[in-house]
Amino acid sequence: MPTDTAAGTRSTPTPPAAPRRRLIRRRSHRKKTALFTVVGIISIVTIFPVFWMFTSSFKGADEVLSTNIIPNDPTLSNFDYVFTSVPFARYMFNSFVVSATVTVIALFFHSMAAYALARLRFRGRDTIFIAIFSTLLVTAPVVLVPLFLVVHRLGLLNSYAGLIIPAIFSAFGIFLLRQFYLSIPAELEEAAILDGCGYWMIYRKIILPMSRSIFAALAVLFFLANWNSFLWPLVATTDQDLQVVQLGIASFQDQHSADWNYVLAAALVAAIPTLIVFAFFQRRIVESVKTSGLK
Amino acid sequence: MPPPSSSAPGPLRTLSRRRFLGGSAAAAATAAAAPLTGCGDIVGTSERDTLQFWNFYAPAPSEDPSVVARAEWMQATVDQWNAENPEQIELVFAPMLGSEKLATAFAAGTGPDIFLISPGDIIRYINGDVLVDLAPYLEQQAIDDFFPDNMASRVVGDQIFALPMEIEPLALYYSRPAFEQAGLAEGDLPTTWDDMLGIADRLIASGQGGLVVPSTQGYYQNFVWYPWMWQGGGSVLSDDGTSSAFDNDAAIEALRLWQTAVERGLTPRVEPAGDDIVTSFVEGYASIWQSGIWSISDFRRRAPEFDYGAFPLPTPPGGEQATALGGWAFAANADGANPDAAARFCAWALGSTDTAGVARVAEWCVETKTDIPPRVSSLEHAEQIGGFDTEIMSTFRDDIFPTGIGEPRFPPVIYKAVSDAIQSCQLAGGQPEEQAATAAQGIDAYLKTYEGAPL
Amino acid sequence: MTGTIGTADAPAPSTSHGERRQNNPNTRARRERRAAYLFLAPNLIGLTTFVAIPMLMSIVLAFFSVDGFGGYTFVGTANFERMVNDPLFLSSLGRTLIYLFVLVPGLFVSGLGLALLVRSQFPLVGLFRTALFAPNVISLVVIALIWKFLLTDDVGFVAKILGRVGITPPSWLGDPSYALATVMVITIWFSMGYYMLIFLAGLQDIPREYYEVASIDGAGPWATFRNVTWPLLKPTSFFILLTSTIAVMTGGLEMLVVLTNGGPANSTTLVIYYVYQQAFVYGEFGYASAIASIMVLILLAWSALLFALTRGGRFTHAD
C-alpha cells in the first residue's frame, strides 16, 4: 500500500521512469487482487454467523431454531410483530437520543481533557492523567449498586438524564485521544501561539480539525457502547416510556422460553443503526489522512 | 445472613441498615455533583405514593395472545384492588432476563413493594428480613387450602413469607413421531432408569434425537436434578436441616445416572436448539425431554399440531416416584413504602376464600398458563372450568403432581456445592462417590456457621 | 518534549521562537495552567461523581459483609481471607490469566492485521470493513444464541460441515476441556473488528510522507512496517495493549452469562463472572467487591509497568 499511495498522490518534480512506473502499476494491481481475495474470505467467514441471524429472522416460530440456513417459508411477520406489538420504534428512538447525545458530548469533553493532558504543561499533569486512567479499571458488577445510589441521590433515576449523564464520563476516550494528540507536531501550536491564539483557539483551529479520523472511530465506539447497553438502563429505569432497544429485545424472552424469531428480528433491526453509523464513519477514518506539517 | 460476629472486631460493628451506603452516597454525591447538575430530587422515586409491583408479565410488552392473557390477569387483579382500596398499586415490567434489576434495587434499599420470587432465591430474602409475614393477613381456611408440600419452602414455623401463584411439576415429555419412527409404542414408555436409557438408546440407534436433561449450570439444573435423587430416598440435608445427607447412595446413583446418559451419548452436552423443547421435538433433535408443565402452553402456542405426551420420571430399583414442584410466588417487601398494604394485596390476590378469589387463582393457572393451582379449592374450580380436560393436563394432575415435593430453599453455598457435584459428574468425568463426599463436606462446613431460617 | 519518535528530530524549544516566547514566561505558564484546568474540569467533575465515587464505595464495601438488602457489617479483612481459601476464586483467577495471555496478544495481532489489510483502497473495501465490524453491533444475547446454535453437538452447522469431511468434533461448549477455548475464539471473532477500527484510526495518523520516503528508499513491506508503521503506531499500540487487558479482564460478562453461565463444570468461570455471581446471584456484594479490588490491583500493577516502560505512554525517550 505504501507504493500505491505514493504513486497516486505525489507531485514530485521528477517522475519515475516509465518502465518502473508500469512495474509499480502491475505490482499494485496484483496486490489489490490478493488483498481483495484474502480480505474477502476473512470477511465472509466473519459475517457468516451474522448471516445466519439475518436469514433466521425471516423464519417462522416453528422453524427459527432449525439448522437450515435458508428459510423454507420466509416471512416478514416477525418484523411486523416487533414493530406493531411492541413500541419498538419508541425504544429505538430512546436509544438513539441517548446514544447520539452521549456521543456528541463525550467527544467534545474528552477531546478537551485529552488536549490538556497531551499538549499543555501544568503541575500535576501526570498525576491527573493517572487518576483519570485508573477509573478505567472499574468493575461493572460491583459499581452498579453504588452508581445506582449516586444517581438515585441526584434524583436522576427514571429520566433521560439518568441514562445520558453517567454514560458520558469515561476515561476510554480521553486516553485514546491523548495518545493521538501526543504525536501532533509542536510546530503547529508554536506558530499559532506566535499568531496570538489562545489555548481555546488552538484547540478549535488546530486540534479539532486534526481529530477527524479519530473522532470518527470514537463516534462509532461511543454510539455502539450506548446503543448496546443493557445493564444500566435496566436498573436505572422503570418507566415504560424510557425503555431502550436492548431491553425491548430482552422482553421477548420469558421465564422458560424465548420467542427467538422475534428476538432475532428485533436484534437485526437494532443492529441496523450502528451498522449505518459504522459504514458512514469508516470512510472518514481512512480518508482524513494527516500530514506531518513538516515540508 | 449475618457473618460470624467473632470476625468483626472493633467498635464499628453493625451499621444501621441502609444508612451506610446511602449516607456516604448522599454526602459524596452532593459534594461532587451538586454543582454539576444543580438540582435535587426532581424526578426522584423516593416520594412515590403508589406501591410498585415488579413482575415479568405486565404491562405486556407484546401482543402474543398468551402473553396478553397473563398481562390482563395481572392488570385486572391490580385494577380491582385499586378500585376497592385507597392504596394504589402500579405494575412495573421487570424482564425475566434481568434479575440484576431486583438485586440492585434491594441492595440499594429501594426494592419494590411487591415482587415475584422463586424458591431458589427465597432463603436470602427471608434471612435478609425483607419479607412480610403474610400469615396474619390470611384466614386459617385459606392457609389450609394451600398444598402444604408446595408451601414448605415459603414457610418458617407458622410464618408465611410468600404466596405461590402456581405449581409447576416436572415430567418427561416425549415425541410421538420419534417414538413411532423408532418402532416404539405407548406401552414402551419407560418406568425404570434402565428402561429409560434403553429406550433412549433405541431412539438414537434409529436416527432419532436423544434424552435431554439440562446441562447448563445454575439453579434450574439443580431443581431438575433433585427428583432423581429423591426417588431413591436421598436428600441434600438431614431431616432437621442441620447437617448434610448428600453423601448417600441415592444421590450418588442419581449423579451416576446423568453421567451415564452423557457418556453413552444419550444426552447431549449442550441442550439442542438453544434449549427449546418445541423446536427440538418438531425438528427431531430430541425425543425425550425433562421439563415442567409450562411446556404444554409452549406447544399449544407454537406447535399446536405436534403430537407429544408426558409421563412421570422413571424410578431406580426399589425407588419411589417423585418430582419437583416449581413455580413463583407473590412476596411483600417489609422495607417498602407500605408493607402492610403490600401484604394485604398479596393475601387478597392469591389467598381470598370467596368464590372470586378461588376463581382468580384457578384462572391464572389454567386459562393464562398451563399449571396446577396451588390451592385445593382453586384446583377444583380449575377442573370445573375445563382446565384439566385434555389428556396431558390430567396426566400431570393425576400421575405426576401427587408425587411432587416443593423445590427446596438452599442458600447459595449449598446450591453451589450440589451444582458442582452435578456438573462434575455429568460433564467433567467426576466420580459420583467422590463428588458427593466433597459436596457433603462443603455443606457441613457451611452449616456449622449458618445462622438463619431452618432449611 | 512533545515529539514522538517520528518527529523526534523536530526542533527543540530552544529555537528562535523560544526566545521571543520567553518575554513573559510566568504569565504564559499561569495561563497555560489555568487553561488546562478549565479543559479538564467537566471531565473531572463527571468522572469523580459517576465513576470514582462508586469505585471508592465499592472498595470500602470490600471490608463489609453485605446481605444484599441494605444491611452492612464491618468485617475487617475477612473477605480477603476468604478469597485465599476459596478454590473457585483461585481457579477462576488461573483461568483469567490464561484468558489474558491468549486474548490480549490475539486481539492485538488480529486487530492490527485486519487494519493493515483494509487500510488501503480496493474494490468493496468499505463493505469488507463493515462486515468485519458487524459482529460488534449485535446484541450479546443474540451472539450467544448464534454460537450456541452453530456449535450444537451433532446437529449444529459446524458439526455438520466437519462431519461431511469425516471429523467428529468435540462438544465445543459442553466439554470442560474445550469450553474456555471456544469462548476465547468467539471473543476474538466479535472483538477483532473493534480493535481493527482503533488501529485503522491510528494508522491514519501516520503522516504519508514517511511512507513516501520509505518507498523511494526502496523499502519492502516488512521494512516499511518495521521502520515506519510500528514506531509511529506506538501510542495506539500502547493504548490497545492497556485497554484490551482491562476489557478482557473486566468485560465480556453478558456473553458469559448467556453463553455458558460459567460452565460446564465451572470451566468458563472467569473472575469477572465470579464477581457477578457473588454480587447478583448470591447477593454477596462485600465479597464481590473484595475480589474486584484485587482485580483492580492486578490491573494497576500491569498498567504501572507499561507506563514505566513507555514514559507514561509518551515514548519520548524510550526505545
From TrEMBL, chain A:
Domain ABC transmembrane type-1: 92-281
Gene Ontology CC terms: plasma membrane
Region (Disordered): 1-20
CDD domains listed in its UniProt record: TM_PBP2 (cd06261)
Keyword Transmembrane helix: yes
GO biological process annotation, one example: transmembrane transport
Pfam families per record: BPD_transp_1
Keywords: Cell membrane, Membrane, Transmembrane, Transmembrane helix, Transport
Family affiliation: Belongs to the binding-protein-dependent transport system permease family.
Membrane topology listed for this record: Multi-pass membrane protein
Annotated transmembrane regions: 34-54, 91-116, 128-151, 157-177, 214-235, 260-281
Compartments in which it is found: Cell membrane
InterPro entries assigned: MetI-like, MetI-like_sf
Natural source organism: Haloactinopolyspora alba
Subcellular location, principal: membrane
Bias (Low complexity): 1-12
Name of the protein described by the UniProt record: Carbohydrate ABC transporter membrane protein 2 (CUT1 family)
Automatic annotation (TrEMBL), chain B:
Protein name per its UniProtKB record: Carbohydrate ABC transporter substrate-binding protein (CUT1 family)
Xref: Gene3D superfamilies: Periplasmic binding protein-like II
Superkingdom in the source lineage: Bacteria
Source taxonomy: Bacteria, Bacillati, Actinomycetota, Actinomycetes, Jiangellales
Species of provenance: Haloactinopolyspora alba
TrEMBL record, chain C:
CDD domains recorded: TM_PBP2
InterPro entries (alphabetical): ABC_transporter_permease, MetI-like, MetI-like_sf
Listed Gene3D superfamilies: MetI-like
Transmembrane segments: 37-64, 97-118, 130-150, 178-201, 238-259, 285-309
Location of the ABC transmembrane type-1 domain: 93-306
Region of interest: Disordered: 1-29
GO biological process, one term: transmembrane transport
Alphabetical list of PANTHER family matching this protein: ABC TRANSPORTER PERMEASE PROTEIN, DIACETYLCHITOBIOSE UPTAKE SYSTEM PERMEASE PROTEIN NGCF
Family: Belongs to the binding-protein-dependent transport system permease family.
Protein name: Carbohydrate ABC transporter membrane protein 1 (CUT1 family)
Species whose genome carries this gene: Haloactinopolyspora alba
